[in-house]
Amino acid sequence: MGMEDHKLKVFCTVAETKSFSKASEIIHLTQPAVSLLIQAIEEIYETKLFDRASNTVTLTPAGEILYRYAKEILNLYAAAEKNIGEMTGLVKGSISIGASTTIANYLLPGVISDFRKTHPKIKVHLLVSNTKRVVELLNAGNIDIGLVEGDVARQKMVVEKLVADELTLIVSPLHPWAKKKNISILEITKEPFIFREEGSGTRQVIEKYLGKYRTIPQDMMISMVLGSTEAIKESVESGMGIAIVSRWAIRKEIRYGTLKPLSFKEEKMLREFSLISQKSAIPSHAVDEFLSYLKTYPFDRLLSWSE
Fold first, then answer.
1. Which site among 24, 82, 119, 218 is 20 to 30 Å from 233 CA-CA?
2. Where are the beta strands (DSSP E) in the chain?
3. Is the pTM above the cut of 0.85?
């Protein structure tokens, strides 16, 4: 990636985020450095590329033109790199993946380590954040692909289903319900419940499901709100309440019998894990390899112990 390439990336990031501060966060440069780079480009073209009048930074007509070309140029760089890589038969390079918490902690570690066995030259960078932030990182071109749980709007992105996830109720093995196989969703208001924080993908799904059965969080005996699934599992194990978590998150605990899963009598509580990518981006050879690996990965086999 050359110097010109870098300048154009910075320019595109400011254009897309409409903010110097947001752009500087994404490209890991200071705000003055971003401003200087933009000024340098403006000097080359001897015209203003951004209107800085209002709170948001918008492209001038000249800026609009440069933006269209810049996107094409960056795509051409990517295509050149990819073709040369294919010709030399060397799949190297790096991939950056943004993933929301459940996927990053419970689904990806196995996939990435298996992938690395067959592609030792490819570096994989994983950024963990919530769904909303992963979408922002993707739109700004800071990650190649995103893996998210919960609903994402499809305007600028390609959204593909990767794998289904079932959310299940967990209780401690000593809980009176531990002997049951399933439970009605209406029963869960009777027990102290441990919830994830607002804005968590898992919590969104639970609230949507409860809403179907005319139950709101206010009807529940919420004993704790915790910021991680790990903390929730610990609390349930030690008998402090019941909770609802992804099946992916409790594979070990079920194997060792430290948590007891229950399904719901009404219907399964399901959601999709989705793969998101930018519409116009040309994936590098390394990203292509990882995508085809991911799409054919035997996820079901990993969960089959618990059927």
1. 218
2. 50-51, 58-59, 93-100, 122-129, 145-149, 157-171, 182-183, 192-196, 221-226, 243-246, 260-264, 269-278
3. no
